[in-house]
Amino acid sequence: MLYAVNADLFRTLHSDELRLIHKIYIEICRQPWFNEAEKQKLATYIVAVYQRGMVDHTKLKQICTAAARENFARRGTGDRGMVNAASSLCG
User: Fold this and answer.
1) Is the pLDDT confidence value at 80 over 60?
2) How distant, in Å, are the alpha carbons of 33, 65, 74, 77, 87 from that of 58?
3) What values do phi and psi take at 35, rounded to 5?
4) Which one of 18, 57, 75, 85 has the fewest beta carbons within 10 angstroms of its own beta carbon?
C-alpha cells in the first residue's frame, strides 16, 4: 500500500486538483463500510495515487475505493479482504 507522499505536491496542486481529491475522499468516507479511524490513511493514499499520475477522476475513484474496501473497511462489514485491485494497479 502506498503511503509515501511528497510534501511538495500540496504546494503545486491547483484548486481544481484539490477539489477532485477531496471529492473522492468525502465519497469514500461516507460509505457505510468505511472505518472512520482510517481517514488519515485514506487521505494519504488518495494523494499518493494521484501523485503517481492517476489523475482521471473515474479511475482514481475506482482504485481508491477498491483499496479502501480492502484496507480501511470496518470489521464485520464483509468488505475487508474482498478486493485487491489497487495493490496490483498501484504498486
Assistant:
1) no
2) 20, 10, 24, 24, 17
3) -85, 110
4) 75
